[in-house]
Amino acid sequence: MNQQTTDTFFNGKLHIQQDPAGYRFSIDAILLASHARPRAKERVLDLGTGCGIIPLILAYRHPDITAFGIEIQKELARMALANVKNNKLQNQITVLCQDMRDLKPDIIGGPVDLVVCNPPYHKPKSGRLNPDRQRAIARHELKINLAEMLQTAKRMLRTAGRFVTIYAAERLTDLIVQMRAHGIEPKSMRTIHGQPAAEARRILVSGAKGAQAGIRLHSPLIIYDSKGGYSQEIQEMFEP
């Protein structure tokens, strides 16, 4: 493995190691973690945790939750575990290296209250496949597809449990259809834009297992301000 890099969050209170040559998390993970909003003492499951960035942020911001990170790639799972230990959050976060399709509630001590997922956005034969295996698996549906991910989320959630994801805007129809097909009713959506006049490239969608129909459309999330820096809302996501 190449020499790892370290990124810091929350004024140096959280340290995240990553492989510079492999898959590295993007701002999508930060946006998802900010919108997940677990409640006190809830159990949270991150499907495809990568280096563990989402459980680490959630555990730091919500010190009374219990979080689980599932990662199929051994190198990334080892890195996630190392990040958990380096940040002394092993009492809150458990990392498991396994295929999420085989995950069952009893493996982690029962169902969870909240599932978060930053899944691969692209179908296997759409777009250019990254030559780096880690990045390819993270971005294309090589190991898991949308339906299988939602099947896992449904299986792991308690009744009325919540699901939050960030996804490619162009695949919104696929996401909504598959959520309903797997018993997770879409309840809120927010589009993500680079600039106010730009079209949405990503969407944040949340749902609840077994809920009744009815969705709320929130104000757009703008990434950059007029000077090219992060907008005020994005800046606040990096503050402790």
Characterization of the model:
The protein has seven helices and eleven strands. With 240 residues, it is of the alpha/beta class. The protein has one domain (5-237): Vaccinia Virus protein VP39 (Rossmann fold, 3-Layer(aba) Sandwich). α1 runs parallel beside α2 (53-61). It is globular, with a radius of gyration of 17 Å. It starts with a strand and ends with a helix.
CATH architecture: 3-Layer(aba) Sandwich
Shape: globular
CATH topological fold name: Rossmann fold
Q: State the helical fraction.
A: 25-40%
How many separate helices? 7
Mean pLDDT: 91
Task: Please sum up the structure shown.
This protein has 240 residues and is of the alpha/beta class. The chain is 28% helix and 28% strand.
Keywords:
single chain, 240 residues, alpha/beta, Rossmann fold, 9-stranded mixed beta sheet, two-stranded antiparallel ribbon, 7 helices, 28% helix, globular
Sequence-ordered SSE layout with sheet pairings:
Elements: E1 5-9, E2 14-18, H1 27-36, E3 43-47, H2 53-61, E4 66-71, H3 74-86, E5 93-97, E6 112-117, H4 133-139, H5 146-156, E7 157-168, H6 172-181, E8 184-193, E9 202-209, E10 216-217, E11 221-222, H7 232-237
Parallel strand pairs: 3-4, 3-6, 4-5, 6-7, 8-10, 8-11
Antiparallel strand pairs: 1-2, 7-9, 8-9
